[in-house]
């Protein structure tokens, strides 16, 4: 998703493919799991910004930012990628 935000910022055409759901790795963590994203005094590069510290709140923040950015992943399982000219 971070790459999609950057691609959008740069005006690139892109598609995000998800085998299951956005942020599935975090979604599948145990309920109430603490999430340590980065040191509190560090401002990471990129457009995603997280304040939450628990799984459910982190997922909610990420989803809110994804939706606000207009990024709609396509749910599909990719088996193989091919290059056609300048496109993958």
Mean pLDDT: 87
Uncertain runs with pLDDT below 50, 5 residues or more?
none
How would you characterize the largest beta sheet? 2 strands, parallel
Strand content bin:
under 5%
Whole-number tally of structural domains: 1
Radius of gyration based on Cα positions: 15 Å
Note down, in words, how this protein is organized.
This protein is mainly alpha-helical and 88 residues long. It has one domain. Helices cover 30% and strands 5% of the residues. It starts with a helix and ends in a 13-residue tail after the last strand.
Sum this structure up briefly.
With 88 residues, this protein is mainly α.
Properties at a glance:
two-stranded parallel sheet, mainly alpha, globular, single chain, 88 residues
Topology:
Layout: H1 2-9, E1 17-18, H2 24-27, H3 55-68, E2 74-75
């Amino acid at each position: 998703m971070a790459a999609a935000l950057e691609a959008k910022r740069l005006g690139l055409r892109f598609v995000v493919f998800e085998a299951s759901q956005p942020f599935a790795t975090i979604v599948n963590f145990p309920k109430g799991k603490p999430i340590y994203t980065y040191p509190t005094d560090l401002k990471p590069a990129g457009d995603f910004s997280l304040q939450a510290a628990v799984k459910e709140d982190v997922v909610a923040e990420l989803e809110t930012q994804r939706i606000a950015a207009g990024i709609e992943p396509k749910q599909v399982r990719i088996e193989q990628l091919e290059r056609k000219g300048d496109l993958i």
